[in-house]
Amino acid sequence: MQLASKIIIADDHPLFRAALRQAVSQAIQGVEIVEADSLAAVQEAVVQHSDADLVLLDLHMPGTHGFTGLVFLRGQNPGIPVIVVSGSEEVSVMRRAIDYGASGFIPKSASLETISEAIVAVLKGEEWLPRDITENGTVDVSEEERKFAAALVSLTPQQFRVLTMLTEGLLNKQIAYELNVSEATIKAHVTAILRKLRVHSRTQAVIAAQRLSVDPARTNME
Questions:
Q1: What is the pLDDT of residue 217?
Q2: Which of 63, 19, 23 is nearest to 160 (CA)?
Q3: Which of 35-39, 132-136, 211-215 holds the top average pLDDT?
Q4: Which of 7, 115, 155, 220 is the Cys-Cys partner for 159 at CB 3.0 to 4.6 Å?
Q5: Taking every annotated instance into account, which residue ranges of this chain make up the domain HTH luxR-type (predicted)?
Q6: CATH domain 143-218 topology
Q7: Would you call 68 exposed, middle or buried from its count of C-beta atoms within 10 A (0-12, 13-18, 19+)?
Q8: 48 alpha carbon, distance to own chain's centre
Q9: Are the beta carbons of 44 and 133 closer than 8 angstroms?
Q10: Where in the chain is the domain with CATH 1.10.10.10?
């Protein structure tokens, strides 16, 4: 059955992108596949292919930290459903991904048949999680995380990149070099980021971003 014409596969590992390509082609005949290996590449792909029907998104890619990429992508492109495809298979991670806007969660250990099943289900408008995840599973998202996630969406794509680099410990000078802009431009971005996230320092911004970490031990950092 023809459910979609275009799917974006976002993963920084070529071998796993190849596996996803095989699963997608198996699930949907005649589908057009667009590949991306970083969050910036995903954003560019979404702009160039606004008619995309689905994004398959790895949580661990260059340009993103934990759930921040998912939150930002969904906020910027609410009309395109996202399935998280991740090696993190804890129930809390799966449930938080759904709570942050994903339409499904596929463990990287899943078979091609399972991946195909998940893709078809989400394209039909359903939510998909592995069968062994019970309906009464808990969602580990605090009110503080929700507020930060809502504020995160207000950032521009460039401000989001700057925040990600701050989270990686880069200085303004290093960020300016990486983005090929002036240090003064980065300082202006940082000021705007602090204002939008309602924090008073770079350190507070980084700690807030770390609350969206995939690692449950880091989501409660103060």
A1: 44
A2: 63
A3: 35-39
A4: 155
A5: 148-213
A6: Arc Repressor Mutant, subunit A (1.10.10)
A7: buried
A8: 18
A9: no
A10: 143-218
C-alpha to C-alpha distance for 18 and 8, rounded to whole angstroms: 12
In this structure, the dihedral spanned by the alpha carbons of residues 41, 44, 50 and 53, taken in order and rounded to 10 degrees, is: 10
Q: Using CB atoms within 10 A of its CB, is residue 39 exposed (0-12), middle (13-18) or buried (19+)?
A: buried
Record the tokens describing residue 112, joined without a space.
């091609």
- In this structure, of 103-112, 129-138, 203-212, the range with the lowest mean pLDDT score is 129-138
Give residue 78's identity as a one-letter amino acid code.
Answer: P
Maximum alpha-carbon separation in the chain = 53
Which backbone phi and psi does 205 adopt, to 5 degrees?
A: -65, -40
Mean of the pLDDT values across residues 33-49?
Answer: 92
Which residues in the chain are classed under CATH 3.40.50.2300? 6-123
pTM for the full predicted model:
0.79
CATH superfamily of 6-123: Response regulator (3.40.50.2300)
> What count of residues does the chain have?
222
